[in-house]
Amino acid sequence: MVSNIRSAVFTFGLAAVLAVAAAAGARAGGSDYAFEPTAPEIKKGDDVVVTLRLVHKPTGKPVSDAVIFRTRIDMGPDGMADMVSPVEAVPSKEPGTYAFKTDLPMAGRYQFLLAAKVQGEPDTVQSKVILKATK
Predict the structure, then answer these.
(1) N- or C-end of the chain: fewer Cβ atoms within 10 A?
(2) Which residues contact 101 (CB under 8 A, 6 or more apart)?
(3) Which residues form the signal peptide (predicted)?
(4) How many domains are contained in the chain?
(5) pLDDT of 65-104, one tens digit each?
(6) What is the pTM of this model?
């Protein structure tokens, strides 16, 4: 009798632990998403359009309808973080991609910092994309 009660308690406890673990694993976090450049290099110039893809890392699928609420582009990777360019969102051509118009006045590496909310996710997606501008 005592053995049956212990077995039932153990089974119930194990089921509860597994249910909590499954629920925690089903919820993605902000770190499960990343912005990626659609092109490895971009020509320098004014009013350059930079297109990024937002990807859900576990599945590799693009994510549409994210709300991007913070952007910044600068030359931090080349030691010139003070060299900031304006960023303006423009319409993108493909689902899961996000396009931005900016100035890349000189050849070199730029970092594009973004913060976005993905529908249904409680965490903010924060991403840093390194771009290379060429002559």
Answers:
(1) N
(2) 47, 48, 49, 50, 87, 88, 90
(3) 1-28
(4) 1
(5) 999 999 999 999 999 999 999 999 999 999 999 999 999 9
(6) 0.77
